[in-house]
């Protein structure tokens, strides 16, 4: 079953709720490990992978879409990620991800 963005959002909520319950000193390592997972889910790379998977399933595998439609949608996806991912933003996202896990 493919993973969707809404599924990862729900997983993040569940993980956050679980982390709130971890208060004992012996549970802090588990809490830290879970926060690492959450940082990965929030990373731009992970989100890009979800977009790629969704694009593949919704657009490329759709036999009812013409090649022209597929080309247009491929260009839209590429433009979206060109606008949201630059080397500077990638570095900022990595730092934010590390802050969440730290």
TL;DR of this structure?
This is L27 domain-containing protein. This protein is mainly alpha-helical and 102 residues long. It is built from 5 helices and no strands.
Mean pLDDT score: 83
Structural class: mainly alpha
Number of strands: 0
Report the uncertain regions. Answer: none
Organism: Chrysolophus pictus
Protein name: L27 domain-containing protein
Report on the architecture of this protein.
The protein is mainly alpha-helical and 102 residues long. The protein contains five helices and no strands. The protein has helices at residues 5-21, 28-42, 44-60, 67-84, 87-101. The two termini are 32 Å apart. Residues 4-64 form the L27 domain. InterPro entries: L27_1, L27_dom, L27_dom_sf. Residues 78-102 are annotated as: Disordered. This is L27 domain-containing protein.
Helix-strand blueprint:
Blueprint: H1 5-21, H2 28-42, H3 44-60, H4 67-84, H5 87-101
Helix pairs in contact: 1-2, 2-5, 3-4
Main features:
single chain; 102 residues; mainly alpha; 5 helices; L27_dom; L27_dom_sf; L27 domain-containing protein; L27_1
């Amino acid at each position: 079953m493919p993973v969707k963005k809404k599924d990862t959002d729900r997983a993040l909520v569940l993980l956050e709720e679980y982390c709130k319950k971890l208060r004992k000193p012996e549970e802090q390592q588990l809490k830290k490990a879970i926060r690492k997972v959450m940082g990965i889910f929030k990373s731009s790379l992970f989100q890009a992978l979800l977009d790629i998977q969704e694009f593949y399933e919704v657009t490329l595998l759709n036999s009812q879409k013409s090649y022209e439609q597929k080309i247009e949608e491929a260009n839209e996806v590429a433009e979206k990620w060109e606008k949201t991912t630059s080397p500077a933003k990638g570095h900022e996202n990595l730092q934010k991800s590390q802050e969440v896990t730290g």
